[in-house]
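Form 7-S
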Amino acid sequence: PRARAEIEAEVKALRRRRADREPKKVSSNGSTFKNPTGDFAGRLIEAAGCKGWHEGAAVCSPVHANWLVNTGGATAAELTRLIDRVRAEVTRVHGIVLDLEVKILGEDA
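Output:
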């Protein structure tokens, strides 16, 4: 069996690695799209050139492409338009339709 200190060090390193890959100090729901079988939504979005795209204050994060962030005052309509654009581009480039991880709520969505 592995020593407790070794396991704790590995967990700490994994948490640090994960934190380095996630946008900080911005409003976000986390991952927007589910990972398709055998691939990662963030990789597909980035490879399709969507990283940094925006609709108003809604932005496809330059840190992690599968995180759509609110840079201040984004509306549900802006987020929905960005989701639709990203999904359409990934489908056009890769032939894969991304399913939402988040649930859209609200009248203007």
